[in-house]
Amino acid sequence: MNILVIGSGGREHALAWQCAKDENVENIYVAPGNAGTALELKCQNVVLASTDANDHSAVIEFCQNNAIDMVIVGPEAPLVTGIVDACREAGIKAWGPTAYCAQLEGSKTFAKEFMEKNNIPTAAYQGFTDATAAKAYIDEQGAPIVIKADGLAAGKGVIVAETIEQAHEAIDDMLADNKFGDAGSRVVIEQFLQGEEASFICMIDGDNILPMATSQDHKRAFEGDTGPNTGGMGAYSPAPVVTQEVHDKVMKQVIQPVVDAMKDAGHPYTGFLYAGLMIDQSGDPYVIEFNCRFGDPETQPILMRLKSSMVNLVAQGLEGQLPNEAKWDTRPALGIVVASKGYPETSSKGDLIAGLPELNTEDDNTVKVFHAGTAFSNSDEAAAKKEVLTNGGRVLCVTALADTISDAQQAALAVTGAISFDGAQYRRDIGHHAITRENA
């Protein structure tokens, strides 16, 4: 079996690594991949004829020329632009939602209106294109308040404003100064929700729902959940805040309504669906955001725990025969993101990474370094040594599996501490909510 994984981040490294475990898989092509995917068994990076997310012909041509049995789409941009629709029209099996369904992530306005129409619990909101009207609404609502760019902004288009002044500044950045380009030409302003966050990710085949292991992401850049929002500084699985009672509420009030509404609209939802949730003190879930793909960095600890074959699950999903449960390692897993200098405002490229453990060892099943923003050096001598350089904001995700969250955190920190590059930054408190519960 030949598989094409589209993407270059830690999520795609984890997906390729997990798929490579299946004995029926011969080749995994990752487009464009990173230094980590290039070193994985059965995996090789490929450069398509075009890297434009709108140019689906390059993907289709590669699949046809390389006998690809299934395509797994990692990032949101090609999903939003309709890569799954294009593959299906060409007779290629692709795992992910159609462009219509991917609007749940591609447009915050679409998502909020969808939730409102289908009685899915979420924060009160208003949408704006005019900065003056947006600021007047903020003045009326007060702070804290949440400002979101309507479109895709690589996980950075969300500002949790603690003050009115911060909220006004966010409006100026998005609507007046065009900080996020077209993605920020419209903003959604939301009520600030209190509670504990959780990530609830499912596989869906149009009818059947397979909940993945629960997880919790850490969005803020600095320890103690402070600093600016990021794409994610670490995650762990499972998330204790998602009790069985909460799990049942999420399935009934959030996930099933999405599946039913999309089917009723003539666009059955297929692929991964990510519900970013706020769980309040009463255990009631509210949707903060929908993503139309596996989360990053949640994918890394979740897939460390997966004992079922990801390839089989995707194959079953493509046939409309998803099971309602998968097999999981009962031990928790925790991943720590190592980011480059200046992240999330800027990112550094070309810094030599030292202290990386070897891939494809027995230790990979308990501690695994998933690459994201990495690349090999261009010089012949350095390439021969397989010198790895930084190549983006989030560089690595050091993920550990252990008997407790505390043990997983310490195992991940031990490996993280041995890795170095100029400006490396990471949080040492990933998993603190669960660890507090463990120690209670």
From TrEMBL:
Its EC number is 6.3.4.13. SMART domains: GARS_A, GARS_C. Its cofactor is Mg(2+); Mn(2+). GO terms for molecular function: ligase activity. InterPro entries: ATP-grasp, ATP_grasp_subdomain_1, PreATP-grasp_dom_sf, PRibGlycinamid_synth_ATP-grasp, PRibGlycinamide_synth, PRibGlycinamide_synth_C-dom, PRibGlycinamide_synth_C_sf, PRibGlycinamide_synth_CS. It catalyses: 5-phospho-beta-D-ribosylamine + glycine + ATP = N(1)-(5-phospho-beta-D-ribosyl)glycinamide + ADP + phosphate + H(+). PROSITE patterns: ATP_GRASP, GARS. Residues 112-319 form the ATP-grasp domain. Pathway: Purine metabolism; IMP biosynthesis via de novo pathway; N(1)-(5-phospho-D-ribosyl)glycinamide from 5-phospho-alpha-D-ribose 1-diphosphate: step 2/2. Belongs to the GARS family. NCBIfam families: purD (TIGR00877). PANTHER family: PHOSPHORIBOSYLAMINE--GLYCINE LIGASE, PHOSPHORIBOSYLAMINE--GLYCINE LIGASE, CHLOROPLASTIC. This is Phosphoribosylamine--glycine ligase. The gene is purD.
